[in-house]
Structure formats: structure tokens, C-alpha cells
TrEMBL record:
Keyword set, alphabetical order: Membrane, Transmembrane, Transmembrane helix, Transport
Recorded topology in the membrane: Multi-pass membrane protein
Organism field: Lentibacillus juripiscarius
Name of this protein: Sodium:solute symporter
Signal peptide: none
Superkingdom of origin: Bacteria
TM segment ranges: 6-27, 39-59, 71-96, 122-147, 153-172, 184-204, 224-243, 264-284, 296-322, 360-378, 384-404, 411-430, 436-457
Keyword Transmembrane helix attributed: yes
Primary localization: membrane
Family of the protein in this entry: Belongs to the sodium:solute symporter (SSF) (TC 2.A.21) family.
Length: 463
């Protein structure tokens, strides 16, 4: 069965887009300082913080890559497994959240500098910008998929429209405006997914018909992947989440420790609802649409459902994608402002100048993200690349700050260089040998280098 476009669905997307723009403009008027723009004045309450954590983590990576592409391409059980790295990451962040707030830094690079020095901050900033620009790029493609499904316009034109929307909303109000739209998006998405789930399985003929229409391999424990390949998809999300600057900034932006803890519990509960629901819907899509781009699996179901149901789901998907794009774009621009411009170019910049610089680089990095997406054939591929650049290049050194007192500057810096260097080598010149995602190689290298260099240099100092 092919996808028949339903232009009426576009009204739901446009309606929600207008709401997001109006909310963004309203809250942009409350921006009085760079702290307002980056950390929402450290005033996020439990409900808004829960929503922004959910919406930021569940973007095009889940809607067009992640659970969606995994369920469609490899099978339902591998897709279900993607929830476990997320839940584990949330639990670990729950433990270290008080320490994150104690640092009081705008960026993860600032935390690393406190332990490893200025060189570590600069290297970390480069890694974050590389990874986050990649993440923003596939949010733009996600909007392209949505507009292609609804109107039939090309994914390329739709991606341009998505780029403009994401850049505009990130620039006008920062986290002060992003967080409330995130909360609205998260709760709309949960409602949309659980309205859709029974409807799409009814249309597909029920579970038995769905399983009868998909390849037999898609019903096995690892699908069409071997165990090592499956780990290559599970590890990147865990190690991105554990060191994700976006999440650190949100936890730092909470009203206090109690709000942060309650929000993280809400985030964990929300993900246990959202992730399996996306997987199940995409799996049903595999039965209904056997020959479409895997990244379009979730969105394609909207065209065979009643218009109202499909429209709500499509609006929810749009909301998740746009808010995730906004968040990662803003976070990357923050690194440029505070870790490069203020640290090395204009140390005496005023707060107003820093605010304006952040807005300028939000636009610049948004344009770079749009250009980058043309180099990757699928959303899932750019997702795994971006997650691994960050997870292998940054997270081992960052977690060591919280959990290993002995770690030193040489170990931390060496680990970052080894992690990102191995990732880029595996992905670009070597072109992913054995069809293994780079995390399988890069993450162990980063951890081994962290431990070995720290122990070697510590021994020299004590000898």
C-alpha cells in the first residue's frame, strides 16, 4: 500500500505551529538577561520541567529515527530495547542532579574546565557543537517528512521550512519560551500517541495480521541485527543522555532540588509511555506500508486514520521535533558564546552583548545544520553519528568528574580526543567497517584511554 497524501492534516500542523510562535513571542518579552535566555531565570517548576525534559529527549530521533526506524527496519523487540538506555540514563542523572546544580554552569564545558582546565573546555565545546548541530539537522529533516506526508511537497522543501521554524523559535526567546512550548508539546504527544495506538491496530487488522505481514526476522529478539550491531544502536543514546548539556541546563534551570527530583520522576514515567507507543505504531506501519522510507513510518499512519486522529498525532510529532531542534540549537549557540567568544575573544563582553551574540550564533549554527543534513542518507545514520561524537567524546570524562576523584587533566583531555577522533575515523575514512556503529569502537577506546592515562600520569607524580 502506498501513502496517499491528506492535505487536510496540514491544518493541524499549521495550527500548532501558530500556537508555538505566539507562545514564543509572548515569553520573549520577558527576557531581561542572558540567564533568562539560557536558563529561564532558574525558575522552571515541576510540570514545565517535566514537559521540557520529555520533549527535548523525544524529537526527530524517535519520530523519524530511533524507535520508528528500528521498529520498521529491524523489528519490534529491538525497538522496545531502546527504552532501557533512556531509563538507566534518567536514573543516573537523578543521582547526580544535585551536583549539576552545585556547579551552576551554563555549559557542560564549564564543568569540565573546573576539573581539567581551559584546554578541556575548548575541546568539549567543539565536540558539543559538532554533535548538537548534527542533532538539529535531522530535526529539520523530520519536519520535511511531515510536510511531505501531508501535502506531497518534496522532503527538501519541507526541510527548508522546518529549518526556518526551528531557527526562528530558538532565536526569539531562548529557554524562557522553549520550556512552556515543550511542556505543551509533551502532554499533547502522549495524548496523541495513545489515541492513535488502538486506532491504527484496528485499521491494520489487529496484532495477528500485523505480525503475519512483516518479515519473520522482525519478530526475533535482535531482529535482523546481530548482538554487537544491536549494542551499536543502544549505547549511543545512553552515553548522550548521561552527558547531555541540554538536560544539564534544564536541571540547572529548575526552581530547586525538589522540583528537579519530581520532574525527573515524571520524565521517567513519561518515557515508559512514549517510547513503546512509538515503536508499536511504527511496527504497524511496517505491515500497512511495506515499501516506504523507514523514517516516515510513524507519520505515514496519519494518512490512513480519521483526519482528526491523524491530525492530532501529526501535530504532536511536529511539536516534539521542533522543540528538540530549538533546544539543541540554543545549547550549541550557548557554547560558542560562553566557551569561545567570552573565554577567548571578548572577555569583557556585557550581558547584553552576550545575549545578542547567542542569538546571532543560533542563526549561524542553524544554517550549518541545514547544510549538514544533506550528507547523511537517513535520519538514523546521522542520529547515531551525532550521539556517538558526544557520548564517546565527552561523557566518559564528564562522568569521571562526578564519580572518580583520582581522574586528572591528562586523562580527561586524552579521553575526549580519543573518543571523538575514533568516532570520526570510523564513520568517515573507514565508512563503518562490518556495518558496526562507531560507538562499539569509540566508547571503549575513550574509557580505556581515560583510565590508562590517568593512572600513568598519577603514578609519575607520586613517584
Amino acid at each position: 500500500m502506498g501513502v496517499e497524501h491528506n492535505p487536510h492534516l496540514l491544518w493541524f500542523v499549521c495550527g500548532y505551529g501558530i500556537i508555538m510562535i505566539l507562545i514564543g513571542i509572548y515569553f520573549s518579552r520577558k527576557i531581561a538577561s542572558s540567564e533568562d535566555f539560557i536558563l529561564a531565570g532558574k525558575g522552571l517548576g515541576t510540570i514545565v520541567l517535566t514537559g521540557t525534559l520529555l520533549a527535548t529527549w523525544t524529537g526527530s530521533g524517535s519520530i523519524s529515527g530511533g524507535e520508528t526506524s528500528m521498529a520498521y527496519t529491524y523489528g519490534i523487540i529491538p525497538a522496545f530495547m531502546l527504552i532501557f538506555p533512556t531509563l538507566l540514563g534518567i536514573v543516573i542523572l537523578y543521582v547526580i542532579a544535585p551536583k549539576i546544580r552545585e556547579f551552576g554552569k551554563y555549559t557542560v564545558s564549564g564543568i569540565l574546565e573546573a576539573k581539567y582546565g581551559q584546554t578541556a573546555r575548548l575541546i568539549a565545546s567543539i565536540i558539543i557543537i559538532l554533535a548538537f548541530v548534527g542533532i538539529v539537522s535531522y530535526q529539520m529533516t523530520g519536519i520535511g517528512f511531515i510536510l511531505n506526508v501531508t501535502t506531497g511537497i518534496s522532503v527538501e522543501i519541507g526541510t527548508i521550512i522546518g529549518a526556518v521554524l526551528i531557527i526562528f523559535l530558538a532565536t526569539i526567546g531562548g529557554l524562557r519560551s522553549i520550556a512552556p512550548t515543550d511542556a505543551l508539546s509533551a502532554f499533547l504527544a502522549i495524548a496523541g500517541l495513545f489515541i492513535t495506538l488502538p486506532v491504527i491496530y484496528g485499521i491494520a487488522g489487529g496484532w495477528d495480521d500485523v505480525t503475519a505481514n512483516v518479515p519473520a526476522a522482525n519478530l526475533t529478539a535482535t531482529g535482523t541485527l546481530n548482538t554487537v550491531q544491536l549494542l551499536g544502536f543502544l549505547l549511543p543514546s545512553l552515553f548522550l543522555l548521561l552527558g547531555d548539556q541540554n538536560m544539564y541546563q534544564r536541571l540547572a534551570a529548575s526552581k530547586g532540588g525538589k522540583s528537579s527530583k519530581k520532574a525527573q520522576i515524571g520524565w521517567l514515567i513519561g518515557m515508559t509511555l512514549i517510547s513503546p507507543a512509538i515503536s508499536l505504531i511504527a511496527f504497524a506501519s511496517r505491515s500497512i506500508f511495506p515499501d516506504i522510507d523507514p523514517g516516515m513510518a510513524l507519520m505515514a499512519t496519519t494518512t490512513v486514520m480519521p483526519t482528526v486522529v491523524g491530525g492530532v498525532l501529526l501535530a504532536a510529532a511536529t511539536a516534539f521535533i521542533v522543540t528538540t531542534g530549538n533546544s539543541y540549537l540554543l545549547s550549541a549557540a550557548t557554547n560558542v558564546t560562553y566557551d569561545v567568544v567570552k573565554k577567548h575573544i571578548n572577555k569583557d563582553a556585557s550581558d547584553k552583548q552576550l545575549l545578542n551574540i547567542t542569538k546571532i550564533f543560533t542563526i549561524v549554527l542553524g544554517i550549518i545544520a541545514f547544510v549538514l543534513v544533506t550528507y547523511f542518507p537517513t535520519v538514523l545514520e546521522v542520529q547515531m553519528y551525532a550521539y556517538t561524537v558526544y557520548g564517546a567524546g565527552l561523557t566518559p570524562a564528564l562522568l569521571a568528574v562526578f564519580f572518580w576523584k583520582r581522574v586528572n587533566m591528562a586523562g580527561g583531555i586524552s579521553s575526549m580526543i580519543a573518543g571523538v577522533g575514533t568516532t570520526l575515523l570510523w564513520e568517515i575514512p573507514l565508512a563503518k567497517p562490518f556495518d558496526l556503529n562507531s560507538v562499539i569502537i569509540a566508547l571503549p577506546v575513550a574509557v580505556i584511554v581515560l583510565i590508562a592515562v590517568t593512572l600513568a600520569t598519577s603514578n609519575k607524580k607520586t613517584a
